[in-house]
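Reply to thread "Modeling small-molecule complexes from scratch"

Following up on the discussion above, here's a worked example others can learn from. I took a protein sequence and the SMILES for NAP and predicted the complex. Inputs first:
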Amino acid sequence: MALNDYATALVTGASSGIGRVIVERLAARGLRVHAVARRKRRLDSLADKTGCVPHTIDVCDLDAMRKAFTGEEIDILVNNAGIGRGHESLMRASDEDVEATLHTNIDSLFHAIRVATPGMIARNRGHIVNMGSWAGLYGQASTLYGATKGAVHLLNQNLRIELLGSAIRVTEICPGRVRTEFAGKSFRDPDFARRFNKAFRMLTADDVADAVMYALDTPWHVNVTTIELCGVEQATGGVQVKRTRRRRGPAARR
Ligand SMILES: NC(=O)c1ccc[n+]([C@@H]2O[C@H](COP(=O)([O-])OP(=O)(O)OC[C@H]3O[C@@H](n4cnc5c(N)ncnc54)[C@H](OP(=O)(O)O)[C@@H]3O)[C@@H](O)[C@H]2O)c1
């Protein structure tokens, strides 16, 4: 069955996890789906399975994104690509971790939106789904990653205002932990990543894709602005406390 009157979608981060399932769902609904990621073999196998159009592109590469999609009629943009490098500690993160996380989780969304949205505006039809996180809404001891997802939160809120007066919808999806490859790639210590993934019953990529499909499937005049979801064994909140002893400076010791 058609998804509103959308015909074409662009999904970033399509080679694994949440993005891969979203591509499968959209293709199953008869849409032409452009699937973007860096791992070619993964994308090719997804294309064999779903009929999606694979694009081996780094989302941080604005020129490549422009070349691939300028002039394409994109009805649905799912900005899903994201990484969690430097997740454990901003102080222990490398310069490369910081740069890659900022570029991937923030800059690339702006690029994709600027490439896909002018056509949506011209046709007055479209839906932008940006993958946020609980970490972008609540403090969760992930300074770098949380701040990038916090930026995504305000991007959504402001974009909705900028696009007011058009029929283009903007949805933010904010999941708690999801069992995907994400933890394995985010944490330097593979044992920690394994423990992280096994600590409790998390959301699955299918659960998050269900939320995306719900937002896309509502009638065109409904703008599902934000969906928060987490596994039943996870909660957020509380106050962190820790005693500290401050060393007195030289002026105070005189
Ligand atoms: N897993 C969680 O607990 C969780 C919770 C909340 C939010 N999220 C968010 O959900 C989104 C999807 O994550 P996931 O859990 O499905 O993790 P995942 O399985 O690691 O998927 C991440 C996807 O992003 C792609 N990607 C990363 N950097 C890219 C780049 N520079 N250019 C193109 N593609 C790139 C990866 O493909 P290639 O490596 O092939 O390029 C992969 O397809 C992310 O935005 C993440 O922040 C995840």
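What I'd highlight from this example: The pocket of NAP is lined by residues 12-19, 36-39, 42, 58-60, 80-83, 104, 131, 133, 175, 177-178, 180-182, 185, 205 (CB under 6 Å). The mean pLDDT is 95. Questions welcome below.
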